[in-house]
Amino acid sequence: MVMASDAAPGARAPNGSVVAAEATHFGKLAADWWNPHGSSAMLHRLNPARLGFLRQAIDAHWNGESQGFTPLAGKTALDVGCGAGLLAEPLARLGAAVTGVDAAPENIGAARTHAEAQGLAIEYIAGGVEAVAGRQFDLVTSLEVIEHVADPAGFVAGLAAALAPGGLMVVSTPNRTPLSRLAMITLAEGVGAIPRGTHDWDKFLTPDELTALLKAQGLTVGEVRGLSFSPTRGFTISDDTRLDYLVTAWRA
């Protein structure tokens, strides 16, 4: 779940949104992506809460009924930084024609293989958000990705350009707080719950910073919701944005 490239490690890639070292890091994890107890276990634990939030946002935006199985039928969806398809596959099952983009080729290979085994027709593209330049989608998602890109403002501009009129965007990312540094880097990376070197705390964005980038692209920003962890309930959507948060946006 990363935007990266083949440029020199840490350098700005030719397409502007990606960092080569990130592709190398996440590409090494590709084969283990779908193992719920492996290196991507934290994403598997996050996914139910994220999918619940997404479903509520989809129903609210398109006035859908929560009981329906395919609220995205007839709509297109783009997942930027799709990894091996942990979000793209549920979006396809919700009825969308899904395109997943990730700059680590290993992730795209793993995503294609897994989708085919599930009988899901998902378009996967190796590259940055620029790989879909000129195309627009009803739903644009990018979860836990913007903290890995070279240029957050340029990345948000790419997401906004891919959003069709009347469409919905959902972005999530860790907040830059003492709690996120302690929980995600000192503790989680320290004990191996998250692969060491996954995060750079200085690249985390606060809700104010991210919403400012979205508004600069002419988008209307919805309510910011926190993604919190409870020892008894796991990850839940809450009002506490100190660890991680989700934002919806659309064109007015």
UniProtKB/TrEMBL annotation:
EC number, UniProt record = 2.1.1.222, 2.1.1.64
Q: Which GO terms describe its biological process?
A: methylation
The pathway to which it is assigned is:
Cofactor biosynthesis; ubiquinone biosynthesis
What top-level branch of life does the organism fall under? Bacteria
Keyword terms, alphabetized: Methyltransferase, S-adenosyl-L-methionine, Transferase, Ubiquinone biosynthesis
Q: Which reaction does it catalyse?
A: a 3-demethylubiquinol + S-adenosyl-L-methionine = a ubiquinol + S-adenosyl-L-homocysteine + H(+); a 3-(all-trans-polyprenyl)benzene-1,2-diol + S-adenosyl-L-methionine = a 2-methoxy-6-(all-trans-polyprenyl)phenol + S-adenosyl-L-homocysteine + H(+)
Q: Name one Pfam family in it.
A: Methyltransf_23
The function of this protein is: O-methyltransferase that catalyzes the 2 O-methylation steps in the ubiquinone biosynthetic pathway.
- Record's HAMAP family? UbiG (MF_00472)
Report the family membership.
Belongs to the methyltransferase superfamily. UbiG/COQ3 family.
| Name of the protein | Ubiquinone biosynthesis O-methyltransferase
Species annotation: Sphingomonas desiccabilis
